[in-house]
Specification:
alpha/beta; Alpha-Beta Plaits; Rossmann fold
Length: 414
């Protein structure tokens, strides 16, 4: 199932915001979860490139689970490693994004770690991929991840003191929950994590969400004080779990937690560039040293990537123009389009056009109440001057972002 199809907007603030004492495993002692439905996935692990991965089975309390582990570089000494939890359901899935080239705006497989020389482990968990048991929606899966850690520590090619954990979306929530249960990881990276996974929706949750004990023992926000490993909670401000991050940040003063909110990023485009940055740092990090990473560095890294992406789109626009005609030597009329369903925002954008560096603006009203307003920012542009081309598209995008609008690119005026 596509992660985009199951991702939902999370509640602004979990009612489970109060902190429990102790770590997650202590809180669960003596409690047996009761599931409302039995969810399992009988599908086998998809075909994968044997040149990159080995299929292994690691021992858990209910039997052996499957996992893919990347092969070490020839002649490599003991290497750092990372367990990566791909988002979506079931928890702990394996998808071809782990080895096929991905769009940098939606790279959920985090192959950057493998490419940087880290050993990567993609574990499957209970109730998935013909494994024993059934899915427990953030209960027994915590134990499975800890079993994967124990297994990885015994691998001869892995440095047991440099094992990291990362995950995205539902996988990020599980990674954060594991952080409240164990100090065995050198660092944890939770992208787009929820403070309370019951908000993912009835179809994907196996327990009774009205049962406060069932829900409480699965909510990372309740146990943040127990986190000991350096843990980064990372998400974007656009259509992501920013409110969950803010709720968790308000709920704890634990210095082991680093909350990183990246402006302009969304639930998916934050992954590729951030994981590439982190992977490069981990590959060079000496044994015994703690990773240095903060929100400012992640923000700059994302902004640099986004600017390069926008400029590449500008070059593609110029290439399309060149296919139809010679690039003119003199300035020509162009328009940069912004889109919104908010009529007031459209009016504000048009009024701000000249201050943003444009000659004027026009608005095309939607054909129905639910339609889109198009604001065309008008100007003349010397297409052979790349700096001017990039500057104007940057101004259009920044204006769109400031008003919560979509930037639709530019082209020659009609």
């Amino acid at each position: 199932m596509s992660l985009r199809s199951i991702f939902v907007t999370l509640l602004l603030l979990s009612p489970l915001g109060a902190q429990d004492g102790g770590d997650l495993l202590t809180a669960r002692r003596g409690f047996t979860t009761k599931l409302e439905r039995r969810i399992s996935k009988p599908d086998e692990v998809p075909e994968f490139p044997a040149s990159l991965f080995d299929l292994v089975r690691y021992e858990t309390s209910i039997g052996k689970m499957k996992a893919l582990i990347s092969r070490p570089e020839p002649g490599a000494k003991k290497s750092p490693a990372i367990i990566w939890l791909i988002g979506g359901f079931p928890l702990g899935g394996i998808e071809d994004c782990a080895w096929l080239p991905q769009d940098p705006e939606n790279d959920q497989g985090a192959a950057a770690y493998r490419q940087a020389g880290l050993i990567m482990m993609y574990p499957t968990l209970r109730g998935s991929f013909a494994n024993p048991g059934c899915q427990e929606s953030y209960f027994g899966e915590v134990d499975d991840v800890l079993s994967a850690l124990a297994y990885l520590k015994q691998r001869p090619e892995v440095d047991p003191d440099r094992i990291y954990l990362g995950g995205h979306s539902t996988g990020g929530t599980l990674a954060l929950l594991v952080a409240t249960a164990s100090d065995g990881f050198a660092g944890i990276f939770a992208f787009g994590a929820a403070d309370d996974p019951s908000n993912y929706g009835d179809k994907s949750i196996a327990y009774d969400q009205s049962n406060s004990n069932e829900r409480r023992l699965r909510a990372p926000i309740r146990y943040l004080a127990a986190v000991k490993s350096p843990t980064w909670v990372i998400c974007g401000t656009e259509r992501d779990t920013a409110e969950s991050l803010k709720a968790m940040q308000a709920a704890t003063t634990n210095p082991a937690l680093r909350f990183c909110l990246v402006a302009g990023a969304d639930h998916f485009d934050i992954l590729g560039t951030s994981n590439e940055l982190i992977a490069g740092k981990l590959a060079k990090l000496p044994a015994g040293k703690e990773l240095k990473l903060d929100a400012k560095e992640l923000q700059k890294n994302f902004d640099d990537f986004h600017e390069a992406l926008r400029e590449s789109e500008d070059l593609q626009t110029l290439a399309r123009i060149r296919l139809q005609r010679e690039i003119p030597t003199k300035a020509v009329a162009v328009r940069h389009d912004l889109w919104t369903r908010n009529g007031k925002a459209a009016q504000t954008a048009a009024a701000a056009a000249k201050e943003a560096g444009f000659e004027g603006a026009s608005i095309k009203e939607p054909e129905n109440e639910d339609g889109w307003h198009r604001v065309s920012l008008e100007s003349k542009l010397a297409l052979r001057k790349l700096d001017a081309v990039f500057k104007l598209s940057r101004a259009a995008e920044e204006l769109a972002r400031s008003l919560g609008m979509e930037y639709g690119g530019w082209g020659l005026a009609d």
